[in-house]
Amino acid sequence: MPIDATQPYDDANVFARILRGEIPATKVYEDDHALAFHDINPQAPTHILVIPKGAYVSWDDFTAKASDAEIAGFVRAVGYVARAAGLVAPGYRLLANIGRDGHQEVPHLHVHLFAGRPLGPMLAG
């Protein structure tokens, strides 16, 4: 169910629990600012989620409250994960769903990396 991206951060969300080690994840990258792991319900042959380690609900929340180091670290982590997974040459899609109309389901900022096949048009219907 999509969430309201203006709500306060919820420490019980699934990504917060993954960050605390309460729920397992198949990690592909981790540093001081970000964690990347395989999606448990992949929508493409390659489907990796990259999340900041800080408690941010949305892109707006993150860019308004995160430090410059957190922002740079998160953006660099996304690029690193794409390069390390060999996604740059064949191509990939980045997607961040924000808020109810954007169909954000987990109230923790996250970016999806999709790859491994032609992904079709950007928006359907």
Order of helices and strands: HEEEHHEE
Strand residue percentage: 15-25%
- Sheet with most strands: strand arrangement: 1-2-3-5-4
Gyration radius, rounded: 14 Å
- Structural class determined from secondary elements: alpha+beta
Overall form:
globular
Low-pLDDT runs: none
TL;DR?
The chain has 3 helices and 5 strands. The protein has 125 residues and is an alpha+beta fold. The chain is globular, with a radius of gyration of 14 Å.
Provide an overview of this structure.
The protein has helices at 14-19, 59-65, 68-84, and strands at residues 27-30, 34-38, 46-52, 93-95, 111-115. The protein is an alpha+beta fold and 125 residues long. The two termini are 19 Å apart.
Which terms would index this structure?
125 residues; alpha+beta; five-stranded antiparallel sheet; 5 strands
Please write out the topology:
Layout: H1 14-19, E1 27-30, E2 34-38, E3 46-52, H2 59-65, H3 68-84, E4 93-95, E5 111-115
Antiparallel strand pairs: 1-2, 2-3, 3-5, 4-5
